[in-house]
Amino acid sequence: MDFDDKAQLDASQVEDVGGGGGGFRGGGLAVGGGAAGIIALIIAVIFGLNPGDVTGGGSQDPASVQPSTDLAAQCKTGADADQSEKCRVVGVVNSIQKYWGGQVQDYSTAKTTLFSGGVQTGCGAADASVGPFYCPQDKHVYLDLSFFDELQSRFGAKGGPFAQAYVIAHEYGHHVQDLLGTMNKVGQEQGAESGSVRLELQADCYAGVWAKNAVDTGFYASKFTDADIKEALDAASAVGDDHIQEQAQGRVDPDSFTHGTSAQRTKWFTNGYSSGDPARCDTFSGSI
User: Fold this and answer.
1) pTM to 2 decimal places
2) Which of the residues in the chain have pLDDT under 70?
3) Are the CB atoms for 247 and 228 separated by under 8 Å?
4) Rounded to the nearest 10 degrees, how much is the dihedral formed by the CA atoms of 121, 124, 130, 136?
5) pLDDT for res 20
6) What is the tally of structural domains in the chain?
7) In a domain, 18, yes or no
8) Which of 71, 74, 235, 239 is the most exposed place for a label (fewest CB within 10 A)?
9) Which residues pair with 124 in a beta bridge?
């Protein structure tokens, strides 16, 4: 994944609040509107737990607070994105939003907030255990970069720059669903054929669609390689419901699925990448 060195980055689309993003101040985790509460669903898929088990309190340890970064000063070109993880996030976000801005009428930009430890959001307080998530209440994507280490160490993913890009593109897929009204049509049901699973698989497909068209946004020097796509597929497989449940509890319970199996997640990313067409991401019709 090689950025065009001369590409101009727009760091205003990403903010870094460090460890001072309001902390994790107890009172539980409020769930934003639409789609069965996307935050609770992501908690479940990351740790294979009941979402209610991860609402909690406590305040952030002051010793863990990390300073924010002035991204505008550090992330100016594609060359910066090739050298810095946070600038790479800026480049990925810029490319994703450039693509969807040309596909969705009246597209509105969603900011990505990088945080460390804990953060206050329009959907309530969250900490790093939530993993990456989209909050429909404030139209932000939230990301603690330590999640990518967790993806490798806990869930066995190989990681890599494009695995990170896939995760970010998936969250922006939720933003697209929010803008199109898809998210509001899904309730809180779980299960292998549930609306929650179909919503997540569509976001995977949207991530693949962006990947197919990313070079046309002007931020990348060349199309993604087979090795790049393998990183995304590996990450998608690592966060399949069946894989996570097997690791967490030694058995698979399809009735509690919220995101889809490893095979389904890789299938729908591949569908999006192969076609490059958002219209091919209808996960709500027929079998999945």
Assistant:
1) 0.87
2) 20-67
3) no
4) -60
5) 56
6) 1
7) yes
8) 74
9) 121
Q: What are phi and psi of 260, to 5 degrees?
A: 105, 160
76 in any annotated domain: yes
pLDDT at site 155: 85
For 115, the token pair is 């945080």
Burial class, 234, CB count within 10 angstroms (exposed 0-12 / middle 13-18 / buried 19+): buried
Residue 187 DSSP SS3: coil
**CA 206 to chain CA mean position, Å:** 11
Taking the C-alpha atoms of residue 125 and residue 105, their distance in angstroms, rounded to an integer, is 31
Range of the domain at 223: 11-279
Asked if 257 and 241 touch (Cβ cutoff 8 Å), the reply is yes
- Dihedral angle over CA of 281, 211, 192, 180, nearest 10: -50
How high is the pLDDT of residue 69? Answer: 77
For 265, the token pair is 């997640």
Residue with tokens 């494009």: 162
Coil, strand, or helix at residue 161?
helix
Residue 5 placed within a domain:
no
Over residues 135-149, the pLDDT tens digits come to 999 999 999 999 999
Which one, of 127, 95, 100, lies nearest residue 14 by Cα? Answer: 95
Q: Is 288 domain-assigned? A: no
